[in-house]
Amino acid sequence: MSEIKLIINGKECVGQKGQTILQVAEANGIDIPTLCHNENVKHYGACGICVVEGKNMPKLMRSCSTLAADGMDINTESPRVVQARKIALELLMSDHDGDCRGPCMLNCPANTDCQLYVKQIALGDYKGAVETIKEKLPLPASIGRVCPHPCESACRRKMVEEPISIAFLKAFAADKDLASGNPFVADIAPDTGKSVGIIGGGPAGLTAAYFLRRAGHAVTIYEAMPKLGGMLRYGIPEYRLPKAVLDQEIALIADMGVQMKANFKIGVDATFEEIRKAHDATVVAIGAWTSMSARCPGEELEGVWGGIHLLREIALGNRPNIGEKVVVMGGGNTAMDACRSAVRLGAKEVSIVYRRTLDEMPAEKIEIEEAMEEGVTFRFLRNPAEILGEDGKVKAVKLQVMELGEPDASGRRSPVAVEGEFETLEIDSFISAIGQKVLPKGFEALELNKKGIIAADEETFRTNLPDVFAVGDATNRGAGIAIAAIGEANKAASVIDSYLKGTEVPYRKPYFSERVVNPEMFVEYEKKQRAQMPHKAADVRIKDFNEMNLGFSEEQARAEASRCLECGCHDYYSCSLIKHANRYEIHPERFAGDKRQSGSEKKLVVIERNEGKCILCGLCVRVCEEVAQQGLLGLVGRGFGTVIKPEFRDSEKINVCKDCHKCAEACPTGALKILF
Length: 676
Hints:
This protein is α/β, with parallel strands linked by helices. The chain folds into five domains: 3-94, Ubiquitin-like (UB roll) (Roll), CATH 3.10.20; 105-184 and 516-561, Alpha-helical ferredoxin (Fumarate Reductase Iron-sulfur Protein, Chain B, domain 2); 195-289 and 437-500, 3-Layer(bba) Sandwich (FAD/NAD(P)-binding domain), CATH 3.50.50.60; 293-433, 3-Layer(bba) Sandwich (FAD/NAD(P)-binding domain); 597-674, Alpha-Beta Plaits. It is built from 22 helices and 25 strands. The strands form seven sheets. It has a five-stranded mixed beta sheet with strand order 2-1-5-3-4, with helices on both faces. Strands 8-7-6-9-20 form a five-stranded parallel beta sheet, sandwiched between helices. Helix 4 packs antiparallel against helix 5 (126-133). 44% of the residues are buried.
């Protein structure tokens, strides 16, 4: 074969006569995306993804089927080429009916691969499950106990009976790992010579430290409290999260080489500016440690507590004297923690006062049920109008009777005062648990938003100071759930790592294909009861702050994990279609419309064929014809109704298919799945 020379992306490339542009590019280290190309079959050019532009050539060329010629000047990423690829990908994805990832993962703020670690638990691979989890979060035993599990609210198993108990399975695997004597420790990249200071040792700060240390950077956490853990330690009661478990997980992060300085206060032990000067980058993760005001007269009285303040006092080992009659204002999980802690402190009459009804209450259902079991009274459609006192101490609370009006911005119906209707309760303590706010004292150099919260770019997590990043409850939207702070810190760590390496890469939410489903699609599945977490009886658990849940047995955990429907695509990590879709910023919704009727066919002996994922590239047909030399697959129908179907003429052909698998191995989208 004679040698040819051509220019590709400004680089002189050498090829052989008879090679395609794609082959020459690959031989010279230049990547051109393609879906339908396979070196084992004839050049075809069906998908249109591999188009390139030639200088002085009017039309784009399909590089997988266009022969290279001496003197060609090719651009593989020109604006015209990129636009053509984006349109081709958008058209393909607009008709693609498949789940790239399970809805559980997509609804997890940390994007934990729930489907994979649940499967690993089902198989008894607990260390593998923890390794999977720790790709996204470093505190699985702690988070598995306290997370309000948005993953479960998206679990499709609920269309059969009930969602998988994903959070408790996470805790189960992590507990097994911690008790193994050889817990999983992530690999650490070689030292980069760069250092990061992290102010705040809560879930966000610990997560940022974990991932930045994994990347090879020197990391120091500065924590104002006596111990690290943030709200996991000081805002969540011991009966939900034993601090010995949290200590073990923090110790594993310290063992990676993360320096931890507790009792370190900004403005006392060092200024913010001094921390900045000591590091190449600084992360502010100071959380939201102050309870929001109840906004009613009498808040200054002795016996009025902020919910977070009370929980912090208990976590510090104190037993606040709250008396026998306690009212807790609020409807979230902090309010549930406060009222249940009040019961454990010895209060005889504990009431939740909430201005809406049970249906609008944002706390987890299980938290509400357990509080009721423990004797907490719920007073709905009530709102404190005034806290009454005597000699400077709380004596009673005057409650405004409410009714529900029109929905507010959150979609919940707005409570409206019923004019002239009040009731008064005698109390010893009043606890306000309606939210938290940030105290940015010492951080005056940072720009705040109109809510008084640190402003940080949502793609770079950068503040107004170029070397300072901010994550967690102290930023943008304010206080939220721990898993959201963890997810944000993980993404920020990736951006900070690229910043320290000199090429800051902003976070961009990846594109995923998602199916629209309905309960009728799940009628064939056998109903299997969700595993119930064993726990202490209410009359036993209220006597102390010891952990109330007893944990799954191995048999329970594996049975529960085996209920997973495995919604996400089996071929995600090798799927060329989703890889290219995320290489370019695509918007398939531009071509939204009715999708082809699709379904799965499992009668191909060992291969399941999913028409919804098929892009009709024809590669499986050509591989069956040219490589396997069987010709069992063919295109059936015309236009949008075209599908690929097999034709088994005799049992001998079925046996050939059983032992071949070449079509499934060649499929670029996961439309063909090997069953066993």
